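[agent] plan:
  1. take the single chain provided in the ticket
  2. run structure prediction with default settings
  3. attach structure tokens to the ticket
  4. add a short note for the reviewer (M.T.)
[agent] executing step 1
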Amino acid sequence: MQLRYGFRLYPSAGQRISLARAFGCARVVFNDALRVREAARAAGLPFVTLAELSKRLTASKKMPERAWLAEVSSVILQQSLRDLDTAYRNFFDGLKGKRPRVGPPRFKSKRDTRQAIRFTVNAGWKITPGGKLRLPKVGDVAVKWSRTLPSTPSTVTVVMDSAGRYFASFVVQSRPEEVLPPATAEVGIDLGLGHFAVLSDGRKVGHPGFLRRAEKRLKRAQQILSRKAKGSNNRDKARMTVARAHARVADARREFHHQLSTQLIRENQAVAVEDLAVKALARTRLAKSVQDAGWTQFTAMLEYKATRYGRTFVRIGRFEPTSQVCSACGVKDGPKPLHVRRWTCGACGAVLDRDINAAINVAKAAGLAVTACGAQVRPGLLPAQREETGTHPQPHPMVRQTGTALL
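[agent] step 2 finished; step 3 output follows
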């Protein structure tokens, strides 16, 4: 399976200028190509192919008004055209029902919160013996290597987020020996807002509420931003302060999700969760709490980690009456108000905790016996990564030893 590895970059002042130039050139090429295709569609002309767009790009670099495109690597400009082609393909596949529907490609702006460029192996990028990332027409960029790569990547994507941080993103092929030894436990998970997760074995995981805890600091930073004159340097500094505050909240939430999902996957042979209607819940009065919980990110981590480590991951339908059925006798007792947290089954007299009862029913609906042993593992299909990088099938001999690949 393919996994994404991200590493923090620390470019110098001159390298940040070079990266900003590269981001801008890639954005202009993308917008020019999109404009050509939209003009052809409006005029009733045939769809402009990727090969034709590439020819026009080569010709435009020789024109005085586009001569500055030659100041950056030509590879990232070609990759920008391929990104546009992928966006169109996803849009058309959504209309045909081959994938979830997405909107048509839109023009990019220099004010977008995420800027990215991609270098393939043809660009001549490499990792130096000193552990720096050498990018063409940018230089040797310092990298914080936090872990090792399981195989040698052939491309790298450089990303700048809204907080002004730079990252190098690799998608590499993981090694099959990462499958964990079989476990004896199976667990159902009931996700909620009172507790982040309630497990079918009775454990309850508290809700960290990262956004709620940071609201005071975020509110103050936003107030300072609102008082700055638009277009001023002070406003840019204040906007960066707000973005960094939000980035700290997102990082803390992501770390919590990683730790909990890894623990559950290591302890259990099979994990079952309910397929929640997160988009619908995000339109209610509970929207801030729902977004702060990050259920979608957490379940996605459970899914790919289960596939990576040889575990079973199951989603049950969102319309399963997990809170209405007695987990002891199986009798459906009907819906109950949200303030009812404990109730007594009218059929068998069992006193049930609402959340634990729902977690046990999640496990049963998924076909898991919570106390059973030796469940058969049938890893499901994993959602595909974004098409940004490829890998060589054979790992580089230096990857495991130093944590960097000497390409």
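[agent] step 4 note for reviewer: The two ends are 22 Å apart (CA to CA).
[agent] ticket updated
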